[in-house]
Amino acid sequence: MDTTKPTLKEISRRLNISAMTVSLVLSGKSAGRVSADRAEKIRQTAKEMGYRENRLAQAIRTGIVPLIALCIYEANDGSASPNLYWFDIIGSAKRTFAAEKVEVLFITYSSVEEFTERISSLRDANMIGGVISNLAIPGKTHEICDFLKNCGLPCAVFGDPAEDTGIPYSTINSAQMEADMLAFLRQKGATELKWFSRQSPLPDADDAANDHVFFHVSSELSRTKLIELAGVPAERIVIVSHYISDLGGHQGFLVKSHSEERCLHALRAIQQQTRKEKITEFSKIINLTGSDMTWVEPISKNRSCK
To answer: What is the mean pLDDT of residues 54-78?
Structure first.
């Protein structure tokens, strides 16, 4: 069997176009230079001919490493439950980056020290071409941003630094959505809606006993903690998640994920930093509203409504 890979010149001869045009398309640099139809024809022909780009050779030639470190904080709370937020981010990054011929290296960290040590090691080995991190360690946003700003790599963050750090960021603003959730829950008797996570202290006895105080949580584990340890009735707890499976058959809100949008924003910022270009969209604030959520009744009631 012939395993010889076709060259750019062979692909260009078959299509009767220049090798330069073929190179632009297969290297992902054809935007605005080659029509979408022609670019797709080139990619399809290259695939049919068995062309495979030597990405290592390209990285050596350009000095750009097509591997981005995506760093997500992992709280040491002793929980063995799966973190669906991770799955959402990983899947979104994989789909978004693959379209740009960029790979993602998923890294979890439990402290600023671990984060800086791992990124420094990968940077010094020239193994990564950029860093994206969330800002989830309480009180440590400044330290993470300060390290990223001075680490010498293109970077972006998920979350709001709350100050001018010089680092591109995207963040979710859920204030309006929470107001819309409360407005919906008023028909069920709620006058106040409070957030509770498994790391939160238990609510005080007055809130736990108040029929008009509802709680929203992100997992069935947090729901169980409220019921068993705080005595909050199940009907006053709603689970809010991107995944129907995370609701576990209980009442709650299914919320649209904007992770792919955030990943694309971060990747674009890193690409522009890599090319020494001006960042065209420094911050991206995604405002969630009632249109992003769907109310789901408990499975026993067997119905859901918008």
So the answer is: 69
Sign of CA dihedral 216, 222, 226, 232: positive
Angle at 267 between CA 266 and CA 271, to 5 degrees: 120
Give the neighbor-by-neighbor strand order of the sheet with 252-255. Answer: 192-195, 213-217, 237-241, 252-255, 293-296, 304-305
- Predicted confidence (pLDDT) per residue in 127-185, tens digit: 899 999 999 888 999 999 999 999 999 999 999 998 888 999 999 999 999 999 999 99
Two tokens, residue 29 = 């640099």
Q: pTM of this prediction? A: 0.74
pLDDT tens for residues 223-254?
999 999 999 999 999 999 998 988 999 999 99
The residue assigned the tokens 């080995």 is 125
Closest CA to 140 of 162, 124, 170: 162
Instruction: Return phi, psi of residue 198, to 5°.
Output: -70, -15
H or E stretch covering 42: helix 36-48
Place of tokens 């990968």: 122
Measured CA to CA, the distance from residue 9 to residue 13 in angstroms comes to 6
The Cα 55–Cα 155 span in angstroms is 22
pLDDT in tens, 169-184: 999 999 999 999 999 9
Say how far apart CA 290 and CA 184 lie, in whole Å: 9
> Torsions phi, psi of 69, nearest 5?
-85, 120
293: exposed, middle or buried (Cβ count in 10 Å: 0-12, 13-18, 19+): buried
Are 105 and 125 within 8 A, CB to CB?
no
What letter would DSSP give residue 278?
P
